[in-house]
């Protein structure tokens, strides 16, 4: 694509980076076919190609964001299906991240939208605040219908709908410390405790620590870890996202210096995509660029790490049919497609992949709150495809997808690591009835 940025504009490294990305786009439109919002809404401006034109126009003319561009960029899920499809290697992720930061700096959103976004950024990345907010949200549940009728209050209604009926107790395993492997040490990893997942389903990390230590891997929970920054990053709150990234980089570099790390294990693929991008996000910060690149290189999804281990034979032979839902951040963001399915199959599960597996389930961070109508359409489409597999259980590797799909599916939805842990001798995952996990023998 031809671009016409001035030399003065290109002196801004963010603009220079976006210009490089724009020039790679050849307008072919292949990406439109796999874009969930184009498939759902049928509007070119809600396709990757349409958004790329809008972003180009905004950046090239150096103008503030307007209502039109904000509408179409807000509707983008950042699912990155377009990056998987694009034959020209257009890095849409970095382009839309830049556009979102520009929108945040230059666009004055309506009051309620501003308040909702500020509240999400204040609450979600902090487990204690999030836990308190979930307790409070239970009081608001009777008003969901009312909120859904008032357009400006729809996000509040969507948020209340997603509030779980019960909130698990905080996990002691999330506290800083070292969990030693059971036998001769085969590896040493740090685990990201994260934010929302540690409140909604602390058993995911507990299970991961239990499985890894049974496999003789030492697991460190370094002091100072926090939210990866993805939630605010996707809202264009660049400084907050970079502050989270720096905090985590410091925590993990300390852990590396104190005893070495083979990997930083991440159990939410949305966080993994962002942490693997820390090197890029902090490239302009001389104090952090090298350290962040080192951290990104060590970041591994738990299934990526497990697949590289020499796993023993599973204790149980389940023979259970599992529908594997590949989160967008897993398949498009991190290009991890093979390992989770192979691990499940090796553990004795029969793995089925739902049709339209490339399409987002509509969770996408805060998308199911801020764009609840499109999100619900995508969720229902996803659940229909999952149920058509005839599986007993859904496995996936991202807490956002688990919450989203579980809100409509008539079968248990669990993190992949919980099924693996059970097959390798761990307890039955909570919420999965015995009959859904019938062992073959
Ligand atoms: S990230 Fe997803 S929703 Fe956004 S343009 Fe690309 S394919 Fe479409
Ligand atoms: S597939 Fe790639 S090159 Fe083609 S229009 Fe989409 S982003 Fe541009």
From TrEMBL:
Record PROSITE patterns: 4FE4S_FER_1, 4FE4S_FER_2
Keyword hit for Transport: yes
Keywords: 4Fe-4S, Electron transport, Iron, Iron-sulfur, Metal-binding, Oxidoreductase, Repeat, Transport
UniProt cofactor(s): [4Fe-4S] cluster
CC cofactor note: Binds 2 [4Fe-4S] clusters.
Start and end residues of each 4Fe-4S ferredoxin-type domain: 16-44, 67-96
GO molecular function: glycolate dehydrogenase activity
The EC number(s) this enzyme carries: 1.1.99.14
Chemical reaction(s) catalysed: glycolate + A = glyoxylate + AH2; (R)-lactate + A = pyruvate + AH2
Enzyme class: oxidoreductase
General function of this protein: Component of a complex that catalyzes the oxidation of glycolate to glyoxylate.
Name this polypeptide is given: Glycolate oxidase iron-sulfur subunit
Source organism per UniProt: Mesorhizobium qingshengii
